[in-house]
Amino acid sequence: MPGSQTRSRARDRTNVLNRPEFMSLNQPSRREHSAGEGRAGGPRRPVLRQQSQQDDTGVRGSRDPSEGPQTADGNPKEATRWPEQDCMLLNPTFRGIAINSLLAIDISLSKRLGMCVGAHGPGAPLRSMVTLLALTGHALPWIFGTLICLWRSNTLAGQEVLVNLLLALILDLMTVAGMQKLVKRRGPWDFPPGFLDCIAMDMYSFPAAHASRAAMVSKFLLNHLVLAVPLRILLYLWAFLVGVSRVLLGKHHISDVGCGFALGFLHFSLVESVWLDSTMCQTLLSIGSLQWTPLV
Question: What is the DSSP letter of 208?
Fold first, then answer.
């Protein structure tokens, strides 16, 4: 009857077990299905099933266990991911967003300030002067210049200052090279290091070795030399321009130069805290010149 058919259809719609996610509850179990097949099909089916199980066992045994679990199609399953990992990727923290934003701004500004990059850039006419300014903060001129001045010096006070300056330069060189090797951050334009940079172990961008050295040397000279006010201002200006020149040449980011300045002041404070007196400096000089006689 039409009324009874309509009521049965409505009952089927309202039944929860008719939903797709609950359809497996209405299906007969595999055990009952296999028992029914065994009664209807005779004794040949279990033999075939046993043979198929043996074949499947052989295939599983020959499969490489390092491939991981596989699906019914034979394709390896993907590694299970926990919901917490997905939430961490999809919902980053405020700290991560802030750090990524600052890094993006740093890279963008550093590339815009690289006006002396290449021979056809907007700052190409100033490239030679900027390169010469950056060379004044290189490690080799300062180390060799300090050695020459130490060789020509005849006063104990001058030798004391020069020996401590030489140790400060070596400390700055080794510390910056170690940090660059540890961080391995490339420059904004990812240029390969030059010949002089390879000799001074200035291979990467962070921190800026020239900025660190300029800040340390300027602070050292201002603390141990009596200079007029214009010269003191020029010394500070020189240290700042050395760091800026590396950004203009596309060698460093702005953050690399800032961290280099901070590291240079830290090196100066460390050298001042372990300052070598005149006696120790004369001992080191005698060892270096192979004229040291150990005390008996």
Answer: -
Q: What is the largest CA-CA distance in the chain?
A: 125
Separation of alpha carbons 80 and 85, rounded Å? 10
- Looking at the DSSP bridge assignments, the partners of residue 76 are 70
Residue count (the chain): 296
Per annotation, catalytic residue among 138, 210, 253, 267: 210
| Residue 70: strand, helix, or coil | strand
224 belongs to the catalytic site: no
Q: Respond yes or no: is residue 210 known to be catalytic.
A: yes
Cα–Cα distance for residue pair 231/222, rounded to 1 Å = 9
pLDDT classification of 46: cutoffs 50, 70, 90: very low
Q: What does the block give as tokens for 147?
A: 């050695």
pTM for the full model? 0.65
The tokens describing 286, both together, are 């005698």
- DSSP conformational letter for 120: T
pLDDT at 179 over 50: yes
Nearest to 138 by CA among 191, 204, 208, 237: 208
Residue 66: per-residue pLDDT: 45
Residue pLDDT, tens place only, 66-92: 444 555 555 555 555 555 544 545 567
Catalytic residue among 138, 252, 253, 267: 252
